[in-house]
Structure formats: structure tokens, C-alpha cells
Amino acid sequence: MIVCSSEHVEMVVDIYESVDSVRDHDPDTEKEDADAERRLEAHHTGKGCFYFKSSFYCMSKETKSWEESRHDCSSRGADLVIINSREEQEFISQQLGGFEAWIGLSDRDREGEWKWVDGTPLTTEYWDSGQLGNTGDEDCAEIYYSDSNKVVWNDKKCSEKLHWICEKRLSQ
Ligand SMILES: [Ca+2]
Ligand SMILES: [Ca+2]
Ligand SMILES: [Ca+2]
Questions:
Q1: 116: closest CA among 64, 143, 79, 156?
Q2: Does the N terminus or the C terminus of the chain have fewer Cβ atoms within 10 A?
Q3: Does the keyword Nuclease apply (predicted)?
């Protein structure tokens, strides 16, 4: 289990800043782009956050409400993770260990209308069908290991305190 402890906040900020510098850079060729990504990967692998395709991720060591978790990501220039593909779902699953974590998905604006934090509607979904119920006004989504040993999503009360995963995209 890779986590970012609070002692490593400075390191995390460094990582996000270096992502910014790479993203702002406008490489002339695809090769330069690939080189930059390889350098970042070599530099950051094993330092508490993880890198997959064109994003950096960081899993919290602390637990917070969904809103506070999102604020933590924003303060680092990132946002709660948006799961765009099966590959990303599987990658996050591998990093999760036994943890439950907030993801950047909620139906807080309108009940039953799930949206990612960047405003995009839900396309690929991995709900734990037995758990998606809005029981007691559950408007935020977590990712976790279900009883059937699959990594799925559940709607949960936004005020509950969970770990969370920030994502910073390197390119669009
Ligand atoms: Ca993503
Ligand atoms: Ca709901
Ligand atoms: Ca639920």
C-alpha cells in the first residue's frame, strides 16, 4: 500500500509542481514528450504517489469528508480522481489495498444524476449494485473492495470520513 503521509506534503507539492512544468512545456516532438514522462516516472516512482499513463495519483493517509478531501486535492492543483476507463479502474484497484477511498463522483446537485468533479457525466460505471441505494441521502462515491472481492463503487454519505485519491492529469 502506497500512501502519502502528511510529512510528505512538501514532496507531493513538488511532484505536482513538476507535473505543471512538464505540462506547460510544449515539446517539439512526441519523443521529447515521452522522454519527459519517463523522467517523471523514474523520479517519482516509489516516493509515495503513483503514476499511470498521463496522470499522477496520491492516496491520502488521513481520512476526511468528501468535501474536505476534494479541498485537499484542489490545494495541490489536483482534484479527486476521475475514473475514465477500465484500465484506470483496474490500476486504482491495484493501489487501493484494503482501503476505502473517495473518488471524484457525486449526485449532490440532483439525486440520481451522477457527475464527475470536472462536470462530465458518468459513462463507464462500476457500482456495487447491491449498495447503490441512496440510503439516508448518500450523494458521494467511494471505491472499495466488495465482499465478492471485486473493487467497486458505493454511494455514501458525503460527511463520512474516508481516505481519498487525488489525480493530476499530465495532458488531455
Ligand atoms: Ca482519470
Ligand atoms: Ca444520492
Ligand atoms: Ca450505498
A1: 79
A2: C
A3: no
pTM recorded for the entire structure = 0.74
- Ligand number nearest to the C-alpha of 160: 3
Which overall architecture, per CATH, does domain 6-169 show?
Roll (3.10)
Task: For residue 113, give the ligand nearest its CA.
Answer: 2
Q: How far is CA 37 from the centre of its chain?
A: 19
pLDDT score for 169 = 93
* CA 16 to centroid of ligand 2, rounded, Å: 32
pLDDT (tens digit, 9 = 90+) per residue, 68-114?
Answer: 999 999 999 999 999 999 999 999 999 888 889 999 999 999 999 99
Which ligand has its closest atom nearest to the C-alpha of 114? 2
| Residue 81 CA to ligand 1 centre (angstroms) | 6
> Whose atoms come closest to the Cα of 158: which ligand?
2
Residue with cell 489525480: 167
End-to-end CA gap in the chain: 28
Q: Is 101 strand, coil or helix?
A: strand
Give strand pairing partners of 99.
none
